[in-house]
Design brief:
Layout lengths: L17 H8 L4 E5 L20 E5 L3 E10 L11 E8 L4 E8 L11 E4 L13 E4 L1
Parallel strand pairs: 5-7
Antiparallel strand pairs: 1-2, 3-4, 3-6, 4-5, 6-7
Length: 136
């Protein structure tokens, strides 16, 4: 019997989201924002939903607080050991970001209001890493 390493599924990278995934691969966190009204775009689009202005990706601090979270106790994603924490993080920059993993912390350590920091992953040319945060 041979063993295989399970790799988490990769995102579908479309033209609108490609700058996000490329920055993440380079260890940076960026988010889509309207260049005219400053509105954050929770899904990247060419035009702002609020004013139809042009959007662009801008660097964000990667720091914030846990707004909400859930502890996953059943392995649903290949390559991810359980239990793990999925969270909605409110960035200090003002936008909420769905985070598939709060890492290097036991679920009992995580609470609403906990400070977190973006944790860049090692670069791989053929792999887009997940967005993960550490407790700050």
């Amino acid at each position: 019997m041979t063993s295989t390493v399970q790799v988490p599924p990769q995102p579908v990278v479309d033209p609108e989201s490609k700058p996000f995934w490329e920055a993440l691969r380079d260890g940076r966190l960026v988010w889509c924002r309207c260049a005219e009204c400053g509105s954050w775009q929770s899904y990247p689009m060419e035009r702002c939903r609020a004013c139809a202005g042009a959007t662009r990706f801008v660097p964000v601090s990667g720091r914030g607080v846990i707004y909400s979270f859930v502890v996953v106790r059943q392995q649903l994603v290949p390559g991810r050991s359980v239990p793990y924490v999925m969270a909605l993080v409110e960035l200090d920059d003002g936008e909420r970001l769905r985070v598939p993993g709060i890492i290097n912390a036991e679920p009992k350590q995580v609470a609403v209001g906990s400070r977190v920091q973006f944790s860049p992953r090692q670069r791989h040319d053929d792999y887009y890493p997940p967005v993960e945060f550490d407790l700050a």
